[in-house]
Write a structure and sequence with these properties.
- The protein has two helices and seven strands, in the order ααβββββββ.
- It is an alpha+beta fold and 117 residues long.
- It has one domain (11-114).
- The radius of gyration is 16 Å and the shape is globular.
Length: 117
């Protein structure tokens, strides 16, 4: 079996994308009174022109077969898991239609049955 080479992305790039994701999430939660969204979108477009982008897995279903996430399970159930918190987003290299993971997302998942607790 031939394995694809591991793609190296400088740590500073991953840190910048992780911080950009954090700012993006805070804008969604707290609003955008200073109209910062436009600047965030421009920075994201710049990274995308270099074929780098992040994916927010919040609310997505989780199973043990997912290779793009590292998860911690919270609550008592392990059936019908869903992402309830994102610590780090999934960072990908390539086109949106076809890309490779260069940073796994780090998430917390919970059973849908326990979602309200």
């Amino acid at each position: 079996m031939i394995r694809a080479p591991i793609l190296e992305v400088p740590q500073w790039v991953l840190q910048t994308l992780n911080n950009l994701y954090d700012i993006d999430r805070k804008l969604i939660m707290h609003g955008d009174p200073g109209n910062i969204r436009r600047n965030i979108d421009r920075i994201k477009d710049t990274f995308e022109s270099e074929k780098l982008f992040y994916e927010d897995p919040m609310g997505q279903p989780f199973s043990e077969t997912r290779t793009d996430l590292e998860a911690s399970i919270t609550g008592s159930g392990t059936e019908d898991l869903v992402v309830v918190e994102v610590i780090k987003p999934i960072v990908r290299l390539g086109e949106r239609s076809y890309s490779r993971v260069v940073q796994k997302g780090i998430v917390i998942v919970r059973s849908k049955a326990n979602e309200g607790t």
